[in-house]
Structure prediction request, 277 residues.
Amino acid sequence: MLSALDISTSALVAQRMRLNAISSNLANMSSVRNENAELAPYQARYVVLQTDDSQGGSQGAAGVKVASVETETVEPRYKYQPGHPLAIKSGQWKDHVAYPQINMTTEFVDALEATRAYEANIGVMEITKNLGLQTLRILA
Amino acid sequence: MSGDIFGPTTIPVLQEVLSFSQARHGVLAGNIANYGTPGYQTRDLSVDTFQQRLKEAIAAKNEQPSYVSPGLMTDEPGDPLKNVSRNMSTILHHDGTNVGLEQQVTEMSKNQMLHNLAITIMSSQFRLLQAAVSERV
Prediction:
């Protein structure tokens, strides 16, 4: 029964990591430079989850862990801004500024999903705790 | 003196369980209090070690009747019960901390379940004693 709590906890951590990635994607929706201040629009990050046998694996159940955080490689969103100091000087996208390609709707739906998954796991934990309390009621 | 009344019951054992879970609660509360302290590493008391030692103490008590409590109160320097272990599988953050709020709250919740279990059994033991002393149910 206590391993059920560990499994739910691993899911809580995983969903929180996912929500962190989503917040990062939304926060950097208009970041035109990367962390080294180079002119490269932000690329969305996505968390990849993986089953984890080390948590309560003995009972056939498996927890979850973050396998990796993947960075997208997509074409930036080009916005026509002539006169902008960072506008592209020549070529097909002359006078355009490269912005991150972030779909706000997708990110919000993902955030909603992560939040509901978090809530669902809290619900499972409450049920598990209630199970323990009900067992104690046999004694009392 | 209390040993005469409580000796045949499991109350001394439960008392040890309670003091362990209370001590562990303090350690876990410290982890949550230091959520965000740079360089802080989570601490924990080993439940397995405690249960192992309790098992040994109960076995020793059964061989020659005495109390469980004094048997557990060792004061040797390398006492594993006094170890505050730092090994919990959590994410190491950039500021050197590894406090996972979810893990800590879950551990607290498990600890609370252990505490509740001991309290419930203890109260039923006391109810039995009460019935015997007062001669009514």
Observations:
- Chain A touches chain B through 16 residues (CB under 8 Å).
